[in-house]
């Protein structure tokens, strides 16, 4: 049953890759539901971007050329949104030939106690081009700041954000994967951001003509190399630090918009 469910859902899962000039600056997941593309607000709001590429979870079976949009087009196509500080979702409306015939997932609000229920979650962790699917369990069900939250005992990573949380017994979307949370995640985010800022300052100083040499070695250039290695190391340490605890916001908040029917 689970294997068949995964195969049926794959064409509905979307990969979003965000670019600034030619550099990929972010990525996330999404899914098709009710004639719309649904993803997390923070996927599109975390970093400035000028283009986004969209592909699908069945890309390996049904290859298509990724659809590329300008940031202006995507942001203008948002018809409802809740920021990360609230329910963290974005509903996007647009029509493309590649979307025709693809399955749109059903959203459902479960009234009964579901702690211990088995769930599936999908996405493209760390920007991978290949869809991943995982089985987990609802380990907690609670409200936080007026947001209904499911805690999942599954390995959710950056890039999974925006993917659907599927209740295996019903086959319906009961939530949108919002983020992972570990004790070290925020610390590593701050470290990576500080390293990026330091690299930018050094790059600017070189462009301004500043040049220092000590024993024939340019300390600015050496520091740039060190900072770039540190940035990569920080990212990989953060990746390895995932303890397999993730969070999903209930689909009831999306259904409350009235745009998608249960």
Strand order of the largest sheet: 5-4-1-2-3-7-6
Helicity range:
25-40%
Q: Write down the secondary-structure element order.
A: HEEEHEEHEEEEEEEHHEH
CATH architecture of the largest domain: Beta Barrel
Oligomer: single chain
Strand portion: 25-35%
Distance between the termini: 23 Å
CATH class of the largest domain: Mainly Beta
CATH fold-level topology of the largest domain: Thrombin, subunit H
Radius of gyration: 20 Å
Task: Characterize the biggest β-sheet.
Answer: 7 strands, antiparallel
Shape assignment: globular
Structural class comes to alpha+beta
How many domains in all? 2
Arithmetic mean pLDDT: 82
Description:
The chain has helices at 2-9, 41-45, 71-76, 185-207, 219-240, 252-255, and strands at 13-20, 23-33, 36-39, 51-56, 67-70, 78-82, 89-92, 118-123, 132-144, 147-152, 164-167, 172-180, 246-250. Helix content is 26%, strand content 32%. The chain is of the alpha+beta class and 262 residues long. The protein folds into 2 domains: 2-182 and 242-255, Thrombin, subunit H; 185-240. Helix 4 packs antiparallel against helix 5. The protein has a 7-stranded antiparallel beta sheet with strand order 5-4-1-2-3-7-6. It has a 6-stranded antiparallel beta barrel with strand order 8-9-10-13-12-11. The protein contains 6 helices and 13 strands.
Quick synopsis:
This protein has 262 residues and is α+β, with helices and mostly antiparallel strands.
């Amino acid at each position: 049953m689970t294997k068949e469910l995964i195969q049926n859902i794959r064409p509905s899962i979307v990969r979003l890759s965000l670019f600034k000039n030619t550099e990929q600056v972010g990525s996330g997941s999404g899914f098709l539901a009710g004639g719309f593309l649904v993803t997390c607000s923070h996927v599109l709001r975390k970093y400035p971007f000028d283009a986004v590429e969209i592909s699908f979870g069945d890309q390996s079976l049904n290859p298509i050329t990724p659809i590329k949009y300008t940031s202006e087009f995507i942001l203008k196509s948002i018809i409802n949104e809740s920021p990360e500080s609230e329910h963290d979702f974005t509903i996007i409306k647009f029509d493309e030939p590649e979307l025709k015939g693809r399955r749109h997932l059903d959203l459902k609000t479960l009234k009964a106690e579901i702690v211990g229920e088995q769930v599936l979650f999908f996405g493209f962790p760390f920007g991978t081009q290949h869809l991943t699917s995982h089985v987990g369990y609802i380990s907690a069900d609670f409200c936080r700041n007026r947001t209904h939250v499911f805690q999942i005992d599954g390995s959710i990573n950056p890039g999974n954000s925006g993917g659907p949380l599927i209740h295996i017994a019903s086959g319906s979307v009961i939530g949108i994967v919002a983020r992972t949370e570990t004790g070290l995640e925020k610390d590593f985010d701050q470290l990576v951001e500080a390293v990026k800022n330091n690299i930018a300052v050094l790059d600017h100083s070189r462009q301004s003509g500043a040049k220092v040499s000590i024993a024939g070695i340019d300390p600015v250039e050496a520091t740039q190399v060190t900072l770039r290695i540190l940035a990569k190391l920080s990212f990989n340490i953060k990746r390895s630090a995932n303890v397999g605890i993730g969070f999903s916001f209930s689909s009831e908040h999306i259904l409350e918009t009235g745009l998608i029917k249960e």
